[in-house]
Write a structure and sequence with these properties.
two-stranded antiparallel sheet; Ribosome_recyc_fac_dom
Amino acid sequence: MSEAIMKMCRDTMNKNIEALVTQFARVNTGRAHASLIEDVPIEYFGSVIPLKQTASISVPESRQLLVTPWDRGAVSAIEKGIMASNLGLHPQVEGQTVRVMIPTMTEERRKDLRKVVDGYAEKSRIAIRTHRQDAIRDIKKEESDKALSEDESKRFQDQIQKLTEEHNHTIEQLLKAKVDEILTV
């Protein structure tokens, strides 16, 4: 049972790291990339779906995205969705496509984005600590139920702590890389 607790703890921590990587990818660093807008919610025929399910997104230039809807009727919905996304982007409709220019990053905007990614990293650290606490609680419960000896319990708790430290180190590396990307002019 305790091996299952370790596996569940490792899996949830890994999913947390994957979610952080996805969040970081969506942060605009001044360069165009499809992941910046691919999950923007679009209201289309009465339901809300991600942009990537209604159009193809290409990067014709380093500071420009070109959105080509599969249905001509989706152009205005895509424009509205991008404008409502709070990404600071201003789409321009050009016939059957929507062109999105990525604005130049100001120093103030870079500082704001740094705060945003710091917040994402902190939420991720908190989630990792919560997973650690849950796993240790489960291990201690097994110990109190006499399913584990005190030594085994301590060994599993040490493994969980080591796992937590490894994931926190990964978060710090990801954060440093993203901050460097944001602050690079």
